[in-house]
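This part of the workshop introduces the protein records we will be handling. To make this concrete, we reproduce a full record directly below:
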Amino acid sequence: MINAGKETVTLVPGASVFDSSESFGMIRGGHVDVSILGAMEVSANGDLVSCLASVKGPANPQANFMIPGKLVKGMGGAMDLVSNPDKTKIIVVTDHVDKYGKSKIKQQCDLPLTGVRVITRIITDLAVFDVDRVNGGLTLIELAEGVELDEVKEKTSAEFKVAETLGSF
């Protein structure tokens, strides 16, 4: 058995599996309620640059299957995971900043997009944002324990609103 990261895995009692083409059919068909994935960048409009950039083609001639300067094992299935955002809620879970301290939450993504206006919620190590993917815009709804609003403002490149009642996690 091999997982999506092309790593060998062992099944535990009670596990079940199905073919990847079946799983992508379920996602594309809107038969999955929620899809959770990581990201290199997200925008205030709900655009996504997944860990593996989108497919090169007429609509996106600069895109490729590589993270700039890094070898990637395959193009992955992120485009399938975000292909039906009207039926499948798309949640991104990521670090708030990259390893260089640059915000991953941007007004507009810099890298080739995996999906346009697909994200519903962004969860980072610092905060949780709801995304209005129809009209564009972020609303901060939760802060991590011990994190101050000023830190989130400093580390977020995108503009955002703050919910009237700010929760914590």
Q: What stands out?
A: The chain is about 10% helix and 20% strand.
